[in-house]
Fold this protein.
Amino acid sequence: MSLYSQNSPNFTNENDEILKAIDQVGKAVQNRGIWVINRGGDRDALFESLLQKQRDFIISMVGTREEYCEDNQRQSQFNLRYAFVPLQLPDMEAPLNIVVVKGFGVKSMILLTTLQIGSKEKDLWFIIRKPTA
């Protein structure tokens, strides 16, 4: 992987740089694993490439990741409410799931994933834990 600068004459855009890095790592791990992208991952260009290359992902959606602190200490008990809904993005055929979690912070956490969610609570919790771990 390489570093890049937006001031470089060879720089095209941030999406291309992110996708190059994903392609390098994806090739090294033979396209196995789950891509977990927090801030800045909510972009059609990334969704399209990950879906086209059949890479599983969990991506935090825009404006949803504010950590809740009380008296400068992380809250240790959460009253979580969560749900998921199957979803299909326009112009993309891959089946996706959107997961909404309320209780980690002021705003709900919204995750988009290619992972299939079964009827067991542990399936959903596996997805919720990835961006927060």
Observations:
- The chain has one domain: 14-132.
- The mean pLDDT is 78.
- The CA atoms of residues 3 and 71 lie 38 Å apart.
